[in-house]
Description:
It is globular and about 65 Å long. With 292 residues, it is an alpha/beta fold. Strands 7-3-8-1-9-10-2-11 form an eight-stranded mixed beta sheet, with helices on both faces. Strands 4-6-5 form a three-stranded antiparallel beta sheet. A hairpin with a 2-residue loop joins strand 5 and strand 6 (147-152). The protein has helices at 9-17, 22-30, 45-54, 58-61, 78-86, 113-129, 158-161, 174-187, 201-209, 214-236, 284-291, and strands at residues 2-4, 32-37, 92-97, 109-112, 140-144, 147-152, 166-168, 193-199, 246-248, 265-270, 279-280.
Amino acid sequence: VIGWDGAQRNHVQDMLGRDELPTLKSLSGEGRLIDIDVTAGVTDTKAGWVQIFTGYTPEKTGVYSNSRYQPVPENLWVFDRVEKQLGPENVDTVAVIGKKGHIDSDPAQKIPYDKWLKREERQKEIDKKKPGRGAMQGGRIVEENGNKFVQIPAKPWNLIAGKMDLFVNGLVENEKVVARALQELEKRKDHRFFFFVHFAEPDHAGHRFGENSSQYSDALRSDDACTGKLLAKLKELGVYEKSLVYVVVDHGFDEGMKGHKYAPFVFLGTNDPLVNRDGNRMDIAPTLLKRF
């Protein structure tokens, strides 16, 4: 599964029409390029990737948005269910992730209120310069012995990350993500695997420059080129013919804007010949489980 974080469907379709995304065009030419909509849950990163890899609504996972979340139970994730079905010794589950903050496994924290305020102000300044690099954290204020604290829950991936063969995040740049992913593929060329490779640059560019910017298009071209490197590696290792590849998206972008408050229109591109209809973000997890 190759994640293109924040890739708006219409923008991608326009670029495909201009032959600017040759890897996605070639991959979906072997299978399908379908429309995916978001009908349950908000269009942000935490909610998006949790739903993609569990198939459940926020009422089941407890992940409603970037600021309202909890650690997702292990048995809801595709990674855990695949290992239980096949045996953990028979399949490697791997995640190589560009983002830090919203796709994270941090434990719960209790932070003095004054310290929390300073950290949030620092994060706002960072986001002005490099949007998407960090994440302001949700939490609730509690008082103990006259002192105020902010209790921050463990991140959604907290319980599953430690059970996977590899979970690494915060690599930020696409080139760093693909370099690490290629190394991990090489290690596992003789073993069955389930990879999640996450590219964050379109989301970062969209927040900083806007969905209609040249920088946003450049970030999508980078996603496509890095996806091409992954497919080339699978072919070099001699495993492409027995690999199913899915390019998926957590949310789109509001048209011409720098956010994705209501951006439910995304897509799935795949070489899987059995994908035969448009779907919903919740359909991706059961599709993966069915194919395994």
